[in-house]
Amino acid sequence: MIYPAELVHKYGAKAGLLMYVAEHLPNIPQARMVVKTPDESIDSVLKRAKHLDWPRLFRSSAIQELDGYEGELKTSEVLNITKMLNVNRYKITDLHRKIYNEFLEEKILEVENSPMRLKEDDGGLDLPDKINTIITEKAKSYHIGTLVKHPNRENCYIVSITCHPPKEYPSTTVFLYDNDEINYLSEFSKLSMRDKRNYKWKKMIRDIGKVIEWYNQIIDLPDIDSDWTWQLEFSVASKSLFQVRPFKPIQIPDFNVEPMELVNPLVIGISDKDGINLRIETIDVLKDEGSKLKGDPSVYYANFSDSNFHYKVKNHQANIFHSAYGLLKHRDVQAMRNAQITVLLKNEGFMLPPSLEFKRRDWVNIKSDGLNVNIEKIS
To answer: Could you tell me the pLDDT band of residue 11, with boundaries at 50, 70 and 90?
Structure first.
């Protein structure tokens, strides 16, 4: 894979890719940030960060986040001294500053040393003991988005936008941008009544179009692999780029699959013309972690809310997720990236026909062209 190796190897994937985009495409807005390597002192980086507004985010940036560890390494939101210590800015004492600086140091070290927490749980074995820390301004927007380009369809993008106002439950809106047409995917979305009354749809659609323009500019850069599709994270109202990372390699099929009698599932990934034979694995993998199974090629069949347990499946080749609303969170993107095929079945009112009600250890054949899928039980 092609990526800006010098920056990524020095500053980690999150920071390195953002720095590369900022250098070559200054027209794409980003939140201001500074990056601390493990060799830099905390006093030094805090001095360099003095120009940044509050609140701030302390984020991880490791090479290994190029293609994994979504949401697994530490991120913290940090308030300014007056809000954190509930003190009037005219009454701040040296003791307040000492307490606050110790708090900032603790938060930076939590990010820097976060691989050790994973290693204690027998994960993250490819991570270094210490990683880079990004100090950045938090976006002044309640709407945070994720975009991925579909790896099997020309000019097709999936966009998920989450709204999380203070003291309210978050809601997620999913769009499919297909050949210059934007479709709202209500069956994959979860909207609150507040959103239904107040959502500025025309502006939202314009914002999605702008982010797709960013994507196409980024993919044209010399050190961004154009044989891959990529994922962007961004804020909507303030129009700011947060993250750039690889998603999946481009694979355009040379065959078509007849659709099943389903309500048009969303499909990512292709098989060959004959399909692939896979054993059904379910959430019950948590009970024995597949220890009694032979490591057969498997498809993880689960409620979408359990997508984060995909890593427990041995020889994981595909996903079938039902009730798939609220797409493109960290762990379901990871599950899609790690599997050859992902089938996302829609939300309310959708029932599988009896022939497709799978049980653990059933075998199925999955044919996919990235648009349509055919799933047939074979034992």
So the answer is: very high
Average pLDDT of the segment spanning 265-282: 94
Asked if residues 365 and 275 have their Cβ atoms less than 8 Å apart, the reply is yes
Q: Which of 157, 337, 150 is nearest to 250 (CA)?
A: 150
Distances (CA, A) of 317 to 308, 335, 373, 377: 15, 10, 15, 16
Element (H, E) at 321: strand 316-322
**Domain locations in the chain?**
32-137, 143-249, 266-377
- 324: its two tokens: 């798939």
Task: Tell me the one-letter amino acid at 15.
Answer: A
Hey, which CATH number is domain 266-377, 3.40.1350, 3.50.30, 3.30.1380, 3.90.1200?
Answer: 3.50.30
pLDDT over threshold 60, residue 242: yes
Q: Side by side, which strands form the sheet with 266-268?
A: 266-268, 341-344, 316-322, 298-303, 276-281, 363-368, 373-377
Amino acid 181: pLDDT: 87
